[in-house]
Amino acid sequence: MKILQFTDIHLTRQGDTIGGRDPNANFAKALAHALDLHGDAEALFITGDLSDWGDEDDYARLKSIIADIPMPVHLMIGNHDDRQLFTSVFPELGNEDGFVQYAVQMSLGTALCLDTWGPDTHAGHFCEDRARWLTTQLEQIDGPVWLFMHHNPVPIHVAPMDKIMLLDAERFGATIAPFAQKIRHIFHGHCHMPLSGSLHGIPFSAPRGTNHAGWPDFSATRLLASAELPESYAVIFATPNSVMTHMVEFGYAGEIKGEGTPDYADWDRMTMVR
Ligand SMILES: [Fe+2]
Ligand SMILES: [Fe+2]
Protein backbone atom coordinates (compact mmCIF):
# COMPACT_ATOMS: atom_id res chain seq x y z
CA MET A 1 0.00 0.00 0.00
CA LYS A 2 1.27 3.45 -0.89
CA ILE A 3 -0.45 6.59 0.40
CA LEU A 4 0.22 10.34 0.59
CA GLN A 5 -0.20 12.69 3.55
CA PHE A 6 -0.43 16.45 3.18
CA THR A 7 -0.92 18.51 6.31
CA ASP A 8 -1.56 22.12 7.31
CA ILE A 9 -2.29 23.40 3.84
CA HIS A 10 -3.82 26.59 5.39
CA LEU A 11 -5.65 27.73 2.25
CA THR A 12 -6.52 31.41 2.40
CA ARG A 13 -7.78 34.23 0.18
CA GLN A 14 -6.20 34.20 -3.27
CA GLY A 15 -2.95 36.17 -3.21
CA ASP A 16 -2.61 36.30 0.60
CA THR A 17 0.56 34.91 2.13
CA ILE A 18 1.45 33.38 5.51
CA GLY A 19 5.02 33.95 6.64
CA GLY A 20 5.79 35.22 3.15
CA ARG A 21 4.53 32.02 1.54
CA ASP A 22 1.43 31.57 -0.63
CA PRO A 23 -0.56 28.58 0.72
CA ASN A 24 -2.75 28.28 -2.37
CA ALA A 25 0.28 28.24 -4.67
CA ASN A 26 2.11 25.80 -2.41
CA PHE A 27 -0.88 23.45 -2.25
CA ALA A 28 -1.06 23.47 -6.06
CA LYS A 29 2.70 22.89 -6.23
CA ALA A 30 2.50 20.01 -3.75
CA LEU A 31 -0.32 18.40 -5.71
CA ALA A 32 1.52 18.73 -9.02
CA HIS A 33 4.68 17.28 -7.47
CA ALA A 34 2.90 14.41 -5.73
CA LEU A 35 0.71 13.46 -8.68
CA ASP A 36 3.69 13.55 -11.04
CA LEU A 37 5.95 11.38 -8.86
CA HIS A 38 3.43 9.41 -6.78
CA GLY A 39 0.37 9.10 -8.96
CA ASP A 40 0.35 5.40 -8.07
CA ALA A 41 -0.58 6.17 -4.43
CA GLU A 42 -4.02 4.84 -3.57
CA ALA A 43 -5.17 7.85 -1.55
CA LEU A 44 -4.24 11.30 -0.29
CA PHE A 45 -4.98 12.20 3.33
CA ILE A 46 -4.96 15.88 4.34
CA THR A 47 -4.66 16.06 8.12
CA GLY A 48 -6.23 19.39 8.95
CA ASP A 49 -5.76 23.13 9.00
CA LEU A 50 -7.35 23.08 5.57
CA SER A 51 -8.30 26.76 5.73
CA ASP A 52 -6.26 29.35 7.63
CA TRP A 53 -9.33 31.26 8.81
CA GLY A 54 -11.99 28.59 8.43
CA ASP A 55 -13.52 30.42 5.45
CA GLU A 56 -16.31 28.84 3.44
CA ASP A 57 -14.68 30.08 0.20
CA ASP A 58 -11.56 28.07 0.98
CA TYR A 59 -13.62 24.89 1.48
CA ALA A 60 -15.53 25.50 -1.75
CA ARG A 61 -12.25 26.01 -3.62
CA LEU A 62 -10.76 22.90 -1.99
CA LYS A 63 -13.80 20.91 -3.08
CA SER A 64 -13.41 21.96 -6.70
CA ILE A 65 -9.65 21.23 -6.64
CA ILE A 66 -10.26 17.77 -5.15
CA ALA A 67 -12.79 16.98 -7.89
CA ASP A 68 -9.89 16.99 -10.37
CA ILE A 69 -7.50 14.82 -8.32
CA PRO A 70 -7.37 11.32 -9.81
CA MET A 71 -7.23 9.53 -6.45
CA PRO A 72 -9.47 9.51 -3.35
CA VAL A 73 -8.78 12.46 -1.03
CA HIS A 74 -9.67 12.20 2.67
CA LEU A 75 -9.96 15.40 4.72
CA MET A 76 -9.65 16.11 8.42
CA ILE A 77 -10.21 19.42 10.21
CA GLY A 78 -7.68 21.23 12.42
CA ASN A 79 -7.76 24.14 14.85
CA HIS A 80 -7.74 26.74 12.07
CA ASP A 81 -10.84 25.18 10.51
CA ASP A 82 -14.51 25.84 11.19
CA ARG A 83 -16.38 22.57 11.58
CA GLN A 84 -19.80 23.98 10.77
CA LEU A 85 -18.69 25.74 7.59
CA PHE A 86 -16.57 22.74 6.61
CA THR A 87 -19.50 20.33 6.92
CA SER A 88 -21.77 22.76 5.06
CA VAL A 89 -19.45 22.31 2.06
CA PHE A 90 -18.60 18.64 2.77
CA PRO A 91 -21.85 17.34 4.39
CA GLU A 92 -20.93 13.74 3.53
CA LEU A 93 -17.97 13.89 5.98
CA GLY A 94 -19.98 14.79 9.10
CA ASN A 95 -21.16 11.76 11.08
CA GLU A 96 -24.46 11.39 12.96
CA ASP A 97 -22.89 12.91 16.11
CA GLY A 98 -21.78 15.98 14.17
CA PHE A 99 -18.08 15.07 14.12
CA VAL A 100 -15.85 14.81 11.07
CA GLN A 101 -14.92 11.20 11.81
CA TYR A 102 -15.15 8.34 9.31
CA ALA A 103 -13.64 5.04 8.22
CA VAL A 104 -12.03 4.39 4.83
CA GLN A 105 -11.40 0.90 3.49
CA MET A 106 -7.82 0.63 2.18
CA SER A 107 -6.06 -2.13 0.22
CA LEU A 108 -4.33 -2.93 3.52
CA GLY A 109 -6.78 -2.55 6.39
CA THR A 110 -8.85 0.47 7.39
CA ALA A 111 -8.04 4.16 7.86
CA LEU A 112 -9.92 5.98 10.62
CA CYS A 113 -9.97 9.76 10.19
CA LEU A 114 -10.48 11.50 13.53
CA ASP A 115 -11.89 14.87 14.54
CA THR A 116 -9.80 16.69 17.18
CA TRP A 117 -11.40 20.10 16.63
CA GLY A 118 -12.84 22.19 19.49
CA PRO A 119 -14.63 25.59 19.39
CA ASP A 120 -12.78 28.82 20.25
CA THR A 121 -9.42 27.19 20.85
CA HIS A 122 -6.34 26.09 18.98
CA ALA A 123 -5.94 23.10 21.31
CA GLY A 124 -7.08 19.63 20.34
CA HIS A 125 -10.04 17.79 21.84
CA PHE A 126 -11.14 14.17 22.01
CA CYS A 127 -14.31 14.02 24.07
CA GLU A 128 -16.16 10.97 25.40
CA ASP A 129 -18.47 10.87 22.35
CA ARG A 130 -15.53 10.75 19.99
CA ALA A 131 -13.76 8.14 22.14
CA ARG A 132 -16.90 5.98 22.12
CA TRP A 133 -17.07 6.16 18.33
CA LEU A 134 -13.40 5.18 18.04
CA THR A 135 -13.81 2.27 20.48
CA THR A 136 -16.77 0.93 18.49
CA GLN A 137 -14.78 1.17 15.27
CA LEU A 138 -11.74 -0.52 16.78
CA GLU A 139 -13.89 -3.33 18.19
CA GLN A 140 -15.55 -3.96 14.83
CA ILE A 141 -12.50 -3.73 12.54
CA ASP A 142 -10.11 -6.68 12.28
CA GLY A 143 -7.15 -4.48 11.39
CA PRO A 144 -4.67 -3.32 10.48
CA VAL A 145 -5.94 0.15 11.39
CA TRP A 146 -4.32 3.46 10.39
CA LEU A 147 -5.28 6.53 12.46
CA PHE A 148 -5.24 10.01 10.91
CA MET A 149 -5.77 13.16 12.98
CA HIS A 150 -4.70 16.81 13.17
CA HIS A 151 -3.40 17.37 16.71
CA ASN A 152 -0.37 15.63 18.18
CA PRO A 153 -1.30 13.23 21.01
CA VAL A 154 2.18 13.39 22.59
CA PRO A 155 3.90 16.59 23.84
CA ILE A 156 6.77 17.77 21.64
CA HIS A 157 8.51 19.53 24.57
CA VAL A 158 8.23 22.94 22.93
CA ALA A 159 5.99 24.89 25.33
CA PRO A 160 3.91 27.01 22.90
CA MET A 161 2.93 23.91 20.95
CA ASP A 162 2.31 21.75 23.99
CA LYS A 163 -0.29 24.25 25.20
CA ILE A 164 -2.31 23.53 22.05
CA MET A 165 -1.62 19.80 21.62
CA LEU A 166 -4.41 17.22 22.03
CA LEU A 167 -5.56 18.19 25.55
CA ASP A 168 -7.51 14.94 25.92
CA ALA A 169 -4.37 12.93 25.23
CA GLU A 170 -4.94 10.68 28.26
CA ARG A 171 -8.44 9.76 27.10
CA PHE A 172 -7.15 9.22 23.58
CA GLY A 173 -4.29 7.04 24.86
CA ALA A 174 -6.63 5.00 27.06
CA THR A 175 -8.97 4.51 24.08
CA ILE A 176 -6.34 3.20 21.70
CA ALA A 177 -4.12 1.27 24.16
CA PRO A 178 -6.38 -1.86 24.31
CA PHE A 179 -6.15 -2.05 20.49
CA ALA A 180 -2.40 -1.44 20.17
CA GLN A 181 -1.98 -4.77 18.38
CA LYS A 182 -4.22 -3.77 15.48
CA ILE A 183 -3.36 -0.03 15.18
CA ARG A 184 -0.31 0.12 12.95
CA HIS A 185 0.44 3.85 12.83
CA ILE A 186 -0.88 7.31 13.75
CA PHE A 187 -0.44 10.10 11.20
CA HIS A 188 -0.86 13.65 12.48
CA GLY A 189 0.03 17.26 11.64
CA HIS A 190 -0.43 20.58 13.49
CA CYS A 191 3.21 21.19 14.57
CA HIS A 192 4.57 22.24 11.15
CA MET A 193 7.68 20.16 11.76
CA PRO A 194 8.71 16.56 11.09
CA LEU A 195 8.09 14.38 14.15
CA SER A 196 8.06 10.71 15.02
CA GLY A 197 7.64 8.68 18.17
CA SER A 198 5.20 6.28 19.77
CA LEU A 199 2.20 6.20 22.09
CA HIS A 200 1.45 2.98 23.98
CA GLY A 201 3.83 1.31 21.55
CA ILE A 202 1.95 2.62 18.49
CA PRO A 203 4.25 4.59 16.19
CA PHE A 204 3.28 8.05 14.97
CA SER A 205 4.72 10.51 12.48
CA ALA A 206 4.05 13.96 11.07
CA PRO A 207 5.56 15.78 8.08
CA ARG A 208 6.32 19.51 8.11
CA GLY A 209 3.36 20.73 6.05
CA THR A 210 2.88 22.22 2.62
CA ASN A 211 3.33 25.91 3.52
CA HIS A 212 4.96 27.56 6.57
CA ALA A 213 7.61 25.75 8.61
CA GLY A 214 8.11 25.51 12.37
CA TRP A 215 11.44 25.27 14.15
CA PRO A 216 11.99 23.29 17.39
CA ASP A 217 13.13 26.06 19.75
CA PHE A 218 12.97 24.17 23.06
CA SER A 219 13.36 27.41 25.04
CA ALA A 220 10.33 29.12 23.45
CA THR A 221 7.59 30.12 25.88
CA ARG A 222 4.93 32.01 23.88
CA LEU A 223 5.35 31.56 20.12
CA LEU A 224 6.36 28.66 17.94
CA ALA A 225 9.54 29.64 16.13
CA SER A 226 9.53 29.46 12.35
CA ALA A 227 12.26 28.94 9.78
CA GLU A 228 12.72 29.00 6.02
CA LEU A 229 12.66 25.23 5.67
CA PRO A 230 11.23 23.62 2.55
CA GLU A 231 7.54 22.93 2.14
CA SER A 232 6.88 19.19 2.50
CA TYR A 233 4.48 16.27 2.33
CA ALA A 234 4.73 12.60 3.30
CA VAL A 235 4.88 9.47 1.18
CA ILE A 236 4.05 6.30 3.08
CA PHE A 237 4.70 2.70 2.08
CA ALA A 238 3.13 -0.15 4.06
CA THR A 239 3.20 -3.93 3.83
CA PRO A 240 1.59 -6.44 6.21
CA ASN A 241 4.86 -6.33 8.21
CA SER A 242 6.34 -2.88 7.73
CA VAL A 243 5.72 0.86 7.43
CA MET A 244 8.06 3.45 5.88
CA THR A 245 7.31 7.17 5.94
CA HIS A 246 9.26 9.71 3.86
CA MET A 247 9.04 13.48 4.17
CA VAL A 248 9.44 14.83 0.63
CA GLU A 249 10.63 18.46 0.68
CA PHE A 250 9.02 19.51 -2.58
CA GLY A 251 9.76 23.17 -1.82
CA TYR A 252 13.53 22.57 -1.88
CA ALA A 253 14.94 24.66 -4.73
CA GLY A 254 18.60 23.65 -4.48
CA GLU A 255 20.67 21.20 -6.45
CA ILE A 256 20.01 17.47 -6.36
CA LYS A 257 22.94 15.27 -7.36
CA GLY A 258 21.42 12.16 -8.87
CA GLU A 259 21.84 9.60 -11.59
CA GLY A 260 22.29 11.39 -14.89
CA THR A 261 23.39 14.77 -13.45
CA PRO A 262 26.86 15.97 -14.58
CA ASP A 263 28.67 15.72 -11.23
CA TYR A 264 27.05 12.47 -10.14
CA ALA A 265 30.24 10.48 -10.87
CA ASP A 266 32.24 12.74 -8.50
CA TRP A 267 29.55 12.50 -5.85
CA ASP A 268 29.49 8.72 -6.19
CA ARG A 269 33.29 8.55 -5.91
CA MET A 270 33.35 10.77 -2.80
CA THR A 271 30.59 9.02 -0.92
CA MET A 272 30.37 5.42 -2.07
CA VAL A 273 33.50 4.12 -3.78
CA ARG A 274 35.86 2.47 -1.28
FE1 LIG B 1 -1.29 24.44 11.05
FE1 LIG C 1 -3.00 23.13 13.74
UniProtKB/TrEMBL annotation:
InterPro entries documented for this protein: Calcineurin-like_PHP, CNP_phosphodiesterase-III, GpdQ/CpdA-like, Metallo-depent_PP-like
Domain Calcineurin-like phosphoesterase: 1-193
Taxonomy, superkingdom: Bacteria
Entry keywords, A to Z: Hydrolase, Iron, Metal-binding
GO terms of molecular function: 3',5'-cyclic-nucleotide phosphodiesterase activity; metal ion binding
EC number: 3.1.4.17
Family in the record: Belongs to the cyclic nucleotide phosphodiesterase class-III family.
Protein name according to UniProt: 3',5'-cyclic adenosine monophosphate phosphodiesterase CpdA
